[in-house]
Each structure stands twice: as C-alpha cells, then as structure tokens.
Amino acid sequence: MKEITHDLLSSFRAPAFPGSFFLSFEGIEGAGKSTQIANLKKYLETEKNYRVLVFREPGGTAFGEKLRQAILDTKTEITPLAEAHLFASSRSQLISEVLLKELAVPNTIIICDRYLDSSLVYQGHARGLGVAEVLDIHNIFPLNLVPHLTFYLRIGVETSEARQKIRNAPKDYFEAKGIEFYKKLIIGYDLIHELFPHRIIKIDAEKNIDHINQEILQTIENLLSARVDQIDE
Ligand SMILES: Nc1ncnc2c1ncn2[C@@H]1O[C@H](COP(=O)(O)OP(=O)(O)OP(=O)(O)O)[C@@H](O)[C@H]1O
Ligand SMILES: [Mg+2]
Fold it and tell me: Looking at the domain assignment, is residue 1 inside a domain?
C-alpha cells in the first residue's frame, strides 16, 4: 500500500474566490448531514445574505445523477478501484460544470453533502483500496480542490442504526453492508480527520440537533470573519 506523504497532502487546496466559500458535510448514514445542511443554508441565506447552493455526492449534474444510480444499485458488485473512479468521475464533472462557475459569483456558499472524504473513507479505508491510492486519483486539477471547511458529524453505529430505523428508508448499497463495515467507516473518518486537522471539524453528533447547529454556526462565524479580515488587510 502507498504511503501518505506530506507532498501528497499539500497538493490539496481550497479554491480561491474572493467572498465565496466551499463547505462539505461528512459522516455515516443518519449522522444528521441533511438536517444540519438545511439549518445552515437557511441561516446563511436569511441572516448573512449569502447565495447558498447545496449539492449531493454522487450527483449534482445530469451525468452525476446517472452515475449515482449505477453506483447505488445494490445488485451490481464493483471493485473498490472501479467505485473510487466512478465517484471521482462524478466529482470532476461537478467541479468543472458547476462548482467553479458558481464560486466565481461573489457571495456564494457551496455546500456539498459528502465530498472527497467520503471516497477516502468508503473506498480508501473501509473497502481497503488505501487512502493514499484514493488521494492519488484526486491529485490532479480540479479534483485536488477541497472545501474551506468540512464538518464531520460523528456518531456511533448504534445511533446510526436507531436513526435509520426511525426514517425507515430502504437499504441502499452501503446500508446493506452491516455493522462491521460501519465500524470501519468510523475508524476511517477519525483517520482522515488526523490527516486534515485544520480543514475537518469533528463534531459530536450524538448531541441534540440544536446543540450541533450552534457548534456549526460558531465555526462558520469564525471562518467568515477571518476571511473578511484578510480581505481588509
Ligand atoms: N442530533 C440528532 N439527534 C437526534 N436525531 C437526529 C439528529 N440529527 C438528525 N436526526 C434525525 O436522524 C435522522 C437522520 O438524519 P439525516 O437524514 O439528517 O442524516 P444524514 O446524515 O443526512 O443521513 P444519510 O447519510 O442517510 O443521508 C432523521 O430522522 C433526523 O431527523
Ligand atoms: Mg442525508
């Protein structure tokens, strides 16, 4: 398995567009990503006057939505390498077709429901392809663009199961994989957090929805005011 070098990690950067930001949310099924994204979007639009666009991965473009169907089809088994390339393919289309154009519009905030870290964790760690291998696939423009901030909503396996039961959603590809896979995902996310300690904000998502929301808003305020300071200088 390849080594994760400092050089490799340092080639991943946030896109530089004055006044615009790129955020992502990560975590296993039921962590609260959709819930918190909806809350944050509303806050940024109504309190901060940002233009907020939300995308889900895989998807966000016509091509990406087609790939989403192929990837999440539980009947078709594919290797982790094939899967990693499918996600990267959808992501690369999303960045070129949508993200870069939208971020160029001042005062825009893009929020992705899953992004690079999901690939690192699901295919790289849990499915065993290797985190360095997945980073390598993304080590080319524009796939090496990463969010300014990523919120990792951390919950345990039991909470994930309990929340999925309430929601009563049909099992998809990953959800059908069972408890051992979930444990690997949680370890994987913790590892990725260590690799990108500044970008990824780990949040205890076992707490209640309002508490988590407050923690996210606090971090966002810091990001927005730090950037305004930089622009002022
Ligand atoms: N902090 C929380 N405490 C209790 N319940 C929560 C919390 N956050 C979300 N929920 C509930 O758990 C369920 C799953 O939340 P949500 O759909 O936001 O998770 P998700 O991370 O988007 O999941 P998925 O990856 O499957 O899309 C929903 O019914 C939601 O209302
Ligand atoms: Mg969701």
Answer: no
**Residue 211's CATH number:** 3.40.50.300
In a domain, 135, yes or no: yes
- Whole-angstrom distance, CA of residue 179 vs CA of residue 31: 15
Q: Which residues are CB-contacts of 154 (< 8 A; sequence separation ≥ 6)?
A: 27, 31, 186, 189, 190, 202, 203, 204, 205, 206
Both tokens of 144, joined, read 């090496």
Name all residues whose Cβ lies below 6 A of ligand 1.
Answer: 27, 29-35, 163, 166-167, 205, 208-209, 212
Please tell me the pTM assigned to this model. Answer: 0.94
- Number of structural domains, the chain? 1
Separation of CA 55 and ligand 1 centre (Å): 17
Task: Map tokens 């979930």 to a residue.
Answer: 182
Give tens-digit pLDDT for 97-138.
Answer: 999 999 999 999 999 999 999 999 999 999 999 999 999 999
CB 149 within 8 A of CB 44: no
Q: How far apart are CA 163 and CA 176, in angstroms?
A: 15
Ligand 1 center to residue 28 CA distance, Å? 10
> Domain range holding 129?
6-232
Residue 211 lies in a domain: yes
Residue whose structure tokens are 């990953």: 174
